[in-house]
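Entry for the shared binder. Reason: the reviewer on the internal report wants the predicted structure included alongside the sequence.
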Amino acid sequence: MKENTNENSDNLAAIGIGAMIVFIALILVAAVAAAVIIQTAEQLQQNAQTTGEETTDLLASKVFIKSIVTTGAADPATSIFVTFELAPGSDSITAANVMWAIECGANSNSGDFTTASQVGTAGNAVTLNTGSTYSITLNLAGATNCPPTANTANEFMIQSGSGGFTYELLSYGGSVDRGVVVV
């Protein structure tokens, strides 16, 4: 007896194997694409976090000027009395790390806030804290130290540590007698 064999090729099995290969290839491509998307998202998150930390550092311990008034032993005034506080949310900072400078053309005057004191207390404040108001008298006497001069404007800059930067324009009016509000 002769056995009947079907020698026709089985196309259905070949199509199934081909579909399975295509399906596996699609899964591999999707996995690679997902890995690239996840890596990009992580990099963007790290960049955003770094930028946020840098911005926070720039604003940390920023000095807000409340007022600046001319002072001195006699008229015309030879110094200014600055009332200030740290910006809300600022970190505490030592007074020696807060630097100031006044520029008036080719001349300038600068120093630090080591002689600042908390309003209502005696003595110098070693550390400046958020929520407290401080004051400091800056002596500007002398021709090369930018003394208050009528009808002029001088640039007043404050740098707190490696953080905040404050800029004010000291606008002296027609009089620089003691008690004139400059800012």
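Summary line for the report: The CA atoms of residues 153 and 171 lie 4 Å apart.
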